[in-house]
Amino acid sequence: MAALLEAAIKVFAEKGYDAVTMTEIAARAGAPIGSLYQFFPNKETLADVLLVRISERMDEAFREIEERSPALTVPELVDALLGVLEQLQDERAAAATLIESLQETSTRAAELRLSRRRRLSRILLGLIEGLSQARAETMSLVVIQLMKIAAAQSAEPDPTVRQGMLRELRYLMCLYLNEKPLRTRSVDTPEGSLESPGCDEITDTSKR
User: Fold this and answer.
1) What is the pTM of this model?
2) Second label for 35, Cα 20 to 30 Å away, from 111, 124, 158, 199?
3) In 3D, which of 102, 73, 59, 82 has the Cα closest to residue 149?
4) Among candidate residues 172, 159, 143, 8, the one with its CA nearest the CA of residue 69
């Protein structure tokens, strides 16, 4: 079954959920189609199992970073987070297409996102002195979005442009995680009032 799951990860990563057939996955694994259906009666079931497998791998990667984070500087933490993207490139690409396609039907997608946010929130709470739980959760979402932008650069065909973008994104993440507002200002949103940092009221609060 492991070979079937690995083949499915690669095919979903390459082609997206809708374009992939069970026959194609079996062929990539070098297995008869009957073997695939023996474990997974349909593509939806296979996708759900894959999200569990991917979730476990990503959670393990973030757990390792969390365990190391007390000894990491901000640049080292950023490199570790970006390293996860490279280490799990196929898994990340497969997860992205599965989450997008199954977001209305699968609880696994929500579990994967929640687990990743919780891990990052705990890392940030240990990194930034005086950070509140609420702001750590918000900041974790920002970091995840920056990681998504970094991951999207894998599709850039020009290596010079790709590396340049990654350097700038790394700088942006380091700057963001090194800074915390001294004061906040109220910003009106459709959902209500939101506390947001003023751009000129920043200081370095990293514990290291």
Assistant:
1) 0.72
2) 111
3) 82
4) 143
Confidence grade of residue 154 (pLDDT, cut at 50, 70, 90):
confident
pLDDT at 186: 41
88, 136, 183 from 152: Cα distances, Å? 13, 24, 34
| Residue 203 confidence (pLDDT) | 44
Every domain of the chain and the residues it spans:
54-181
Phi/psi of residue 95, nearest 5 degrees? -60, -40
Strand partners, 184: 197
Q: d(Cα 64, Cα 84) in Å, to the nearest integer?
A: 10
- Report the first-to-last Cα separation within the chain, whole angstroms: 45
**Three-state secondary structure along 77-101?**
HHHHHHHHHHHCHHHHHHHHHHHHH
